[in-house]
Write a structure and sequence with these properties.
This protein is of the alpha/beta class. The chain contains 16 helices and 12 strands.
């Protein structure tokens, strides 16, 4: 990396802090400026934007830990972004991809793992902090059915609502659900998938979740649609699932389990579906092991961990489950997040009436950073279908998965949700 340019008013301490920050950001093409006009730029002075830092305390926090320092500074209004936030974050993510975590970052990650441990009580606390913010908040920027997981876009022109319905159908086709079967849904969100499976595939579902707000909403929907006799929403931890089922499904829950509890999860799955059952996991993952974002765990998504495929498949090994299908829908999640971020920005005024400015900025950064993580491959989105050793065959080829979908363009085009 070439020499950075500094304005002459810098003290030695400021120069040292700014050099640490620029190195910590991997030389991303950003300009750093203090409120009094003192600043530093990359060697060629070609920048995507400027981070305007209000005070030297924030500067020192960024030097110690660029991720938490920037996240706290931006959310608190002590760092102002001048330029396109998504483009700037993308440059930082790509620049930092090969930089090893600092000793301080590793220490903070271990501390977060300890204090946000997903015990029975810990999970309830972690889920409450993220999902019980109020259904009215999520209604502002999710789709009409409140699906808060990666959508599936059979066409780049599909709306968010269409893509979320397509995702639910895609999951059901992968599982080859049959009328009369029983399904257990671990971590059911606001209940859209459980209701979709019962309504369209004739199965009976028991759906578990420890978010009170989500379960209340799901039960109301089931009653309104006359599906309460076929879908039971249970406000309880997945570890308390009991009974026998044909199918186990989990969409967006594995991230909340914790790496050290995968063995117990595999034992539970085998207990409820046995050797003749089958299932599907839909989860955020990684290409190589790494802690989840420290700032996101601290402020938005406590207790989160995104496994690599090897770690996730250890859930199945001890119980001789066969992995039948693995698919990466990373770009579908990037597109989902484009829609969410665009809707969130449109709803800024309403969000501001519910929460303070710090909350609004924190969630903008969380959504924008997550979008960039999937665009750049920092995060992946895996769907894994598995089955017991005595399970009936599911699919001979993948052709039935795509029945009814529009033909894919020969040269796929990215249709931006934000313009």
């Amino acid at each position: 990396m070439g020499k950075m340019s500094f304005l002459p008013k810098f003290s030695f301490a400021e120069t040292w802090l700014l050099r640490r920050i620029m190195n910590g950001l991997g030389g991303a093409p950003l300009r750093l400026v203090l409120e009094d006009g003192v600043g530093a730029s990359p060697p060629d002075d070609s920048t995507l934007g400027t981070l305007r830092i209000r005070d030297r305390r924030t500067l020192a926090a960024m030097a110690l830990d660029p991720e938490i320092g920037f996240g706290e500074g931006y959310a608190g209004g002590r760092i102002r972004v001048e330029g396109d936030l998504v483009r700037m974050l993308e440059a930082v993510y790509r620049s930092m991809a090969k930089i090893p975590d600092s000793w301080y970052g590793r220490l903070v990650s271990r501390w977060l793992e300890w204090c946000q441990d997903n015990t029975l009580d810990g999970s309830r606390h972690n889920i409450h902090r993220h999902y019980d913010l109020g259904n009215d908040f999520y209604k502002l920027w999710l789709d009409a059915q409140l699906l808060y997981t990666c959508a599936y876009f059979p066409s780049p022109r599909a709306t968010l609502e269409e893509a979320q319905v397509a995702k639910m159908d895609y999951v059901c086709r992968k599982l080859q659900l049959q009328p009369g079967e029983t399904v257990v849904d671990a971590g059911c969100g606001w209940g859209a998938l459980a209701l979709h499976m019962a309504r369209n595939y004739g199965v009976s579902v028991k759906a578990f979740n420890i978010s009170h707000e989500q379960i209340r909403f799901a039960r109301e929907r089931a009653a309104e649609e006359g599906l309460s006799d076929r879908v039971e929403f249970i406000e309880d931890d997945y570890r308390n699932i009991s009974g026998k089922f044909d199918v186990f499904v989990s969409v967006g829950m594995l991230e909340h389990v914790g790496r050290d509890r995968y063995a117990g999860l595999g034992e539970l799955i085998h207990r409820v579906v046995g050797d003749s059952g089958r299932g599907l996991f839909h989860f955020i993952g990684r290409n190589r092991p790494a802690p989840f974002s420290r700032w996101i765990r601290r402020r938005v998504f406590p207790g989160a961990y995104a496994p690599v495929l090897r770690e996730a498949t250890e859930i199945f090994e001890r119980w001789n489950f066969s992995v039948l299908d693995v698919e990466n829908l990373r770009l579908h999640y990037a597109k989902t997040l484009e829609h969410w971020l665009a809707r969130f920005e449109e709803a800024n005024r309403q969000v501001s009436t519910m929460y303070d400015a710090r909350f609004l900025r924190a969630w903008r950064l969380y959504l924008a950073g997550s979008l960039v993580a999937f665009q750049t491959g920092t995060l992946q989105l895996f769907q894994v279908v598995f089955a017991g050793s005595s399970c009936r065959p599911l699919l001979w080829t993948r052709a039935p998965l795509y029945e009814g979908e529009p033909e894919t363009e020969r040269k796929p085009q990215w249709t931006h949700a934000m313009s």
